[in-house]
TrEMBL record:
Official protein name in the record: Uncharacterized protein
GO molecular function, one term: DNA-binding transcription factor activity
Pfam families with a match to the protein in the record: DUF1644
Domain of life where this protein originates: Eukaryota
GO CC terms of this entry: nucleus
InterPro entries listed in its UniProt record: DUF1644, Znf_RING/FYVE/PHD
Stored Gene3D superfamilies: Zinc/RING finger domain, C3HC4 (zinc finger)
Length: 158
């Protein structure tokens, strides 16, 4: 690694340290980068993409509009009668999202976060938090309005 590559890597790490999910205002675990209409102008909204036992900011964000574009770069297949998702930073239209690169994902997943359940004081990284939720909150199920609720109920009996 030459000096220029090292400077670029350090610069990226410093940027990743500052990242916050605009929904939960914490380091985004299992983060995705939203592709909004201002992406080319420098808008970079990162959001948590955890499962249904965590805060799951991306799903909450999508549910807020009643529609969710695909995880790829664009989705113009949704009907014109559906509301479009607006970027939480610039209010531009969301066209989809990207999975972030492994070094950034590993760094963000290593950041401590608090348990999302009321009256629980546990704090840990993404891996520790996942284990904690399964061991300390096993009875917690997805919310009734969660689209994966049906899948959860079906799998529970098989």
């Amino acid at each position: 690694m030459n000096v220029q590559q090292w400077k670029e890597a350090t610069k990226d790490i410093k940027q990743w340290e500052k990242l916050r999910c605009p929904i939960c205002i914490e380091h985004p675990h299992n983060a995705v980068l939203l592709n909004c209409s201002s992406f080319d102008s420098g808008c970079r909204p990162y959001m948590c993409n955890t499962d249904d036992r965590h805060s799951n900011c991306l799903d909450q964000f999508c549910k807020s509009s009643g529609s969710c574009p695909s995880a790829s770069t664009s989705s113009n297949e949704s009907g014109s009668n559906q509301r479009k998702l607006a970027c939480p930073l610039c209010r531009g239209e969301i066209h989809g999202w990207f999975m972030i690169l492994d070094p950034a994902r590993e760094l963000l997943n290593s950041k401590p976060r608090s348990c999302s359940y009321e009256s629980c004081d546990f704090v840990g990284d993404y891996s520790e938090l996942s284990k904690h939720v399964l061991s300390d909150h096993p009875a917690i199920q997805p919310l009734e309005d969660d689209l994966r609720q049906l899948t959860f109920q079906v799998n529970k009996f098989f």
